[in-house]
Amino acid sequence: MGLNVAVIGLGSMGYGMAQVILRAGHRVWGRDINREAEARFQASGGETDPLAEALLDSVVVVVLDAAQTRDVLFGPDGLAGRLRQGAVVLGCATVAPDFARETEARCEEAGVLYLDAPISGGSAKAASGDLSVMASGSPAARAAAGPVLEAVAETVFDLGESAGAGSAMKAVNQMLAGVHVAAMAEALTFGMTQGISPARFFEIIPRCAGTSWMIENRGPSMVAGDYTPLSRIDIWPKDLGIVLDIARSARFAAPVTAAALQQFLVAAAQGLGGENDTAVAKVYAQNAGLAVPGARDD
């Protein structure tokens, strides 16, 4: 039997997730500060009625960060206090583990279940229902979130019976992902100094030991000079900032992560924050007096 589900945040990830939950036979409300995104989702079959909080079985929060998650759940119009007892919230944003634990406790006080459920896989996998979810939370929360997880995920990693562990694992993933994007940009532009074109780089490296998921995923758009934002530069100062905050609290040095963060901060300062994260290559290229594909059109 279909559930009543709200997806809060219809960006590149949330929109795809809302679509696959809808296709799985559930009744889905999509909400976003961007009214055009809401209208587009409603035109594709999403609910047009006002959000019926008391009827919701699940709320999937796919917003930018902890501050937006807190506002959605506990702000002046927060959902947590208006959901029915036993409804489940899936927190999918990249947040610090302490914030996930705090959110679980506040939801419990409101009689609502909470699953720490950060996601990975990119917008294409969000749209096809093939995400990886790093889930931690009580058995009751995991069970209540089951139908939504079945719709959106290819793989659900069970990381324990309390919130925080899922977000810790996502921080590890983001450390690698952010470093890989910056390393790809560095290697690409280094190759250009040696007469290796971006097209040649992406023809060869994905077949060699130096490849990564980021290279294989981002390569085609880089060769085309397409910086349409699917994962924006602005995401990385936030996510790598979270990683380094966690590292400091653990008294763990993360110098490679810190170096990658600096490149994204420079890119954001140059006005590239709204572009796809591959635009960090423009920073390296500019420093070398080069131009990556698409840069001359900026």
Structural summary, described in words:
The structure is a single chain. The chain is α/β, with parallel strands linked by helices and 298 residues long. Helices cover 50% and strands 12% of the residues. The chain contains 13 helices and eight strands. It has helices at residues 14-23, 35-43, 66-74, 97-109, 122-128, 139-144, 146-152, 165-193, 198-204, 213-223, 235-249, 255-272, 281-287; strands spanning 4-8, 27-31, 58-61, 88-91, 113-116, 119-120, 131-135, 153-158. The strands form two sheets. A five-stranded parallel sheet has the order 2-1-3-4-5, with helices on both faces. It has a three-stranded mixed sheet with strand order 6-7-8. Helix 11 packs antiparallel against helix 12 (255-272). The longest helix has 29 residues, at 165-193. The mean pLDDT is 96.
